[in-house]
Design brief:
Elements (H helix, E strand, L loop, with lengths): L9 H7 L1 H9 L20 H14 L4 H28 L11 H26 L5 H6 L3 E8 L4 E3 L12 E12 L5 E13 L8 H7 L14 E9 L9 E5 L6 E4 L3 H16 L5 H12 L7 H9 L10 H12 L2 H4 L7 H4 L4 H19 L3 H19 L5 H15 L7 H14 L1 H11 L4 H25 L1 E3 L2 H25 L4 H27 L4 E3 L4 H21 L3 H16 L2 H8 L6 E5 L8 E4 L5 E4 L5 H11 L3 E7 L4 H4 L2 H5 L3 E7 L6 H13 L3 E4 L5 E4 L2 E7 L17 E6 L2 E5 L5 H9 L11 E3 L10 H7 L3 E4 L12 H9 L3 E4 H4 L2 E4 L6 E4 L1
Helix pairs in contact: 3-5, 3-16, 4-5, 5-16, 7-28, 8-20, 8-21, 9-20, 9-21, 10-21, 11-14, 11-15, 14-15, 15-16, 16-17, 17-19, 18-19, 19-20, 19-22, 20-21
Length: about 850
Amino acid sequence: MREEGEGYDDRRDEGRHGTRAAVHAASGGRLGAAHPRQEGPTDLRLVPPALAAWATSAVMLDAAPAWVTGTAVGCLVLAGVLMTLRVGRARRVPGAMTGGRSGWPAVTVAAVLVCAAAAAVSAGLHGADLRRGPLPGLAERYATVIAEAEITSDPRLVRPRVRGPAPAPTAVLIEADVRRVETRDGATLVTRTPVLMVVDVERRRSSSASSAFSAGDRPSPWLALLPSTRVRVTARVVPPADGGDTAAVLRVRDPKVPEVAGEPSAAQRLAGRLRAGLREATDGLAPDARALLPGLVVGDTARITPELDEAFKETDLAHTLAVSGSNLTIILVLLVGPPGLAQRVERRGLAPRLGISLRTTALLGGALTLGFVIVCRPDPSVLRAAACGAVALLALATGRRRSLIPALATAVLLLVLYDPWLSRSHGFLLSVLATGALLTLAPRWSAALRARRVPPRLAEALAAAAAAQALCAPVVAVLSARVSLVAVPCNLLVEFAIAPATVLGFAALATAPWAMPVAKALAWCAGWPAGWIADVARTGAALPGAGVDWPGSWPGAALLALATVALLLAGRRLLRHPWWCGACGVLLLLAVVQPPPLTRVVTGWPPPGWRFAMCDVGQGDATVLAAGAGTGVVVDAGPDPVLVDRCLRTLGITRIPLVVLTHFHADHVAGLPGVLRGRQVGAIETTAYQEPVDQAEFVRREAAARGVSVTRAAAGEERRTGGLSWRVVWPPADPTVVPEGPNDASVALLVRSAGLRLLLLGDLEPPAQRALLRSPAGPLLGGVDVLKVAHHGSAYQDPGLLSRTAPRLALISAGADNTYGHPAPGTVAALRAMGAMVLSTDRDGALAVTGEGAELGVAGD
């Protein structure tokens, strides 16, 4: 019986591939006398069993024990019947068992059934873990317990996106296994149940607001805990929000200092030391490189800002922050050599240069793989990469060359049997799809591009990026309800930077515990490619046409898959016509970049001669006062850097003499990085009331990082730039006047532009509005042309101020379907009763005021 992969006999192999044999012999004879075997057609026999195990695991995790048992027994019985029939046929027909592949379908079906049975049993046992023990019952009663838990993942700090005046409370999320539970009645219960611990943390500040403002915040000690550490916590047990692989959620009380009941293992202490060394080595780098390099190397994303993380998601570069097979591949390639050459001669890379034998090379690769998993943590993508690498190394050690598709199928099969919850992991699905694309579609597309005279290196990179995007885009659309149009070019632009950043980063990781100066030098070198990757992500995300909204559902994914197939078929025909390809490329480029002059011609936005623009940034404020060609004064930055940056790009703003931040609520200042990105900014002016402290510190930190000065506004200050002038009318300059809160400390501006008078009120509440009327600036507020209604048009407005201003046009910035009820119907009705036209961004989109003097116009995007 001929072994799989022996598609040619040895003599024809030697005659047809003498060159390869010569190279093989030239490697020093360390491979032995056997000639390299040729692989025949791709072996797909392991693919159906792997898919069957995957699907069965996903279904059986929630199934009742009777269904699990019935499925497993039924599959085994059917497999036994099939094999019995095949053996009986072999006895009746001599040679049936050895005559080629006549029995291949029966064996494959039997293997599918056996793997499905094994997956059903494994999934049933893992699913039962969530229903066993006392925690599910305690969760139903929302009981308070004292629990001893073993941490199974790195703690991570989570702050939801800004949806109102301030971000949601910061929390530390920790995956753990509860080992012991003490209830209020004194009972002690031993268990082993997976849970999610949620620790609500308050940033630890110094005693005074001023010192906190200068010293900053100290990280929570919960973030320093390592996997395998045992902690003792007092917590309320609540049911999990969306099921998953946790039996309950522990809401931890008294989060200031964790009570450690057991130290982490030696391996985790070593991994923690290495990771801490890498963080220390990167401390002196630029902010982007300092945040990104630990994520690229070991998946440590603690320093990634929400703005940078969003940029990576918008450009489909988030996979670079999740350690995957590419990281392990880069390290193994240094040892073994390029995969394509390893399939033929297996003796490239550092190993043969150092005189290391084939099997020793495989053992070293296995040690690297094990260390990789320990240091990078066993996330789904890491486990998939490690399992696939282990299968390939085993083939290397035994001298059996296998196709990488069977290796991937084996990895999937082993992983879903070991951890059935991976079958429901979107990250695992994306990892497998991307790897499958690189092994199946990418080589064919690369060959097709090379046949059309595309340079080989460019053809390979373009084919890999396009293939991964084609297969992964439907799943990404389900997760983000968006399709990126810049994913392929952005992935191409960062491709050449990932390898040096990863290699130098791993070198810094390895040397940091013993030679920190060397590690810092290596990290400094790695910071250049890491910074390039961050710049590509930010630039791509800021493009006006970077992506399009898409239905975030599985039917939407199916629709995108059909659209992708249609696009590929059309593209295949277009490749025969270079001029058409060029024209389509130019059109796509214009759709993504959307140059302001072209956008104005096509859409009419922004209207010519606009004086004041209100950006549509959701539930927040971001407005722009025109001060000349490409120049504008920005008042507030909104909650989202990407949205405000996109608005400013659309308006063509490249120079900003002044950024006015009316107060420090997050829906007015969190988008500041988007305002500062790529623009000349003269200064930032803020209110003197430095609350909330964390947002005030955020503003100062962002300004300092870009060398922009920060000043404080006070009533009576007057400024002019170009044809634009304004006067600060609130807050008062008297330091003894203490506002009731951040809203009442908002900077209010009275603006003149080409004969128009505009009043911008920030988020002033009625007490401050009444005080403003009584202030020296009160008489100046009568009869304005445009009013930026205070506090997103909330119900709390002073009728006297509205009556005094009597605006012709009232503009309100509010998010669609916001939970605050903004704008309030009563406020809108009161303004309309005064004769004002009322427009809001939640209904009308971005707004721009035009006209001069008595002429007043407004246009919506």
